[in-house]
Amino acid sequence: MDTELALAWVREIAAAVERQEAQLTELDSAIGDSDHGSNLRRGFNAVMTALDSPEPTAVGAVLAKTGATLISKVGGASGPLYGSAFRAMGKALPEEKATTAALATALAEGLLAIQQLGGAAPGDKTIVDAWAPALAAFEQAVSQGLSAAAEAAAEAADQGARDTVPLQARKGRASYLGPRSIGHQDPGATSTALIFRALAQSARTA
Amino acid sequence: MKKLINSPETVLTDALTGFAAAHPELAVDIPNRVIARAVRPERPKVALISGGGSGHEPLHAGFVGPGMLDAACPGEVFTSPVPDQMLTAAQAVHSGAGVVLIVKNYTGDVMNFQLAAELAVEEGIEVRTVLVNDDVAVEDSTWTAGRRGTGATVMVEKIAGALAERGAALDEVAAVAQRVNAASRSFAIALTAATVPAAGKPGFDLPEDEIEVGVGIHGEPGRRRERLRPANELAAEVVDTILADHDLAAGDEVIALVNGLGGTPLLELYVVYGEVQARLAERGIRIARNLVGNYVTSLDMAGFSLTLTKADAELLELWDAPVATTALTWS
Prior knowledge:
The complex is a heterodimer. Chain A has one domain: DhaL domain (Serine Threonine Protein Phosphatase 5, Tetratricopeptide repeat, Alpha Horseshoe), CATH 1.25.40.340. Helix content of chain A is about 70%, strand content about 0%. Chain A has 9 helices and no strands. The longest helix of chain A is centred in the middle third of the chain and has 19 residues, at about 100-120. In chain B, helix 4 (about 150-165) runs antiparallel to helix 5. In chain B, the strands form 3 sheets. In chain B, strands 1-2-4-3-5-6 form a 6-stranded mixed β-sheet, with helices on both faces. A 6-stranded mixed β-sheet of chain B has the order 9-8-7-12-10-11. A two-stranded antiparallel sheet of chain B has the order 13-14. The interface of A and B includes residues 33, 35, 74, 118 and 175 of A.
């Protein structure tokens, strides 16, 4: 991954968030407080502005700046979680370009940051339920190159998000609903799937 | 949706503009969304900072002033503030004695305040964080995000604020805040749901003759739904639910807050207070101090919450200490 591809990935996330804002908000209104779509849109709009001036010149810098902007603009739970993940990924990539193996390590650092801050484990009906299987699929396909690894990760994240439907939430505001959270797809896992889908798309067209 | 707003997008900025115009005695930083005392302390003093989503007014900005908070950070409606706000607040009010962050236990608030604390420490500011988690409606803390912070926030901010005003050290102020939280329990009943301006419709549908028992302050549904009953029965249920979770016994004294959720007339809150007082008296528990009114609201939700803080001589003396904020004032 080079700087250009990193920028393309983040831009693709921003575009996808814009397209799917209503869907994310609808999922969140069922088991949360109806602001996941609008919060992420506000955050990634700010990221787009931040990345324009001046444009970062290394993969790590793109991701770190994305993370810092999300932390300072979003609020709620998704801002700190995604912000810390991108910041950790940026920190894990000190070279100008990143090999696919290095990106796998960075994605693992991102998951670690999310789990350290939010304390969620797989099965808690959160971001982790999409990120963890995506990371595993990416790691397994590293030798096949970025495009294949990213595609495998995107599919695993989609599946992971769908698999949150029968789960009962144990973290975040949905947890107050107890058994009433069962039967709904987790909005955070859904936006994570969107992030990995964006990676696959930008890797394919690079 | 009928609301006195210009637009859902500008409601927070517009409200802060009005708050600043109404209260020139406070320093309102509208772009950074920080409300702070305008006058710096003469000697180093532990600074108390709180914050949270907007829509709970007068919490927290209404409690900024001598004897209570040093600064407050309002987020978007029902969305926690961002770490930069708390850092800006800490830099504005830190006078060398450290900062206590008072955080209501919600996932977003906890994480944003944690990141803020890390930033403040990097700036050389000593920080203690106190979590408020008084809502007994959340029964199973192991499998949820834990008990929510609600009405007890008022007691924590008032009592810790009084101790900080006297020049107590950082750890002492944090300790008394934790002690007040541990001595407090709350429970709420909603008659209607809140309408978030950006959402435009109530957070949940509640039929004319039903109530939501055990609600939080963000429009999330509660423990269960019941038929509406007379105030004496509802007050008794709320008192009994709290007592079942509290170590209060006959002969104990409490500070009681009968809190309106935003859409309930004071007339009805006094009806509830009378019933609460009577029910507690039957159990031999005396209300030593009380507050009746709208202090921790949930936009336009109708209903009330009850908070009981077990009191002792030290806590009562700090409660009685002078306070001068827009929402709480006595000398």
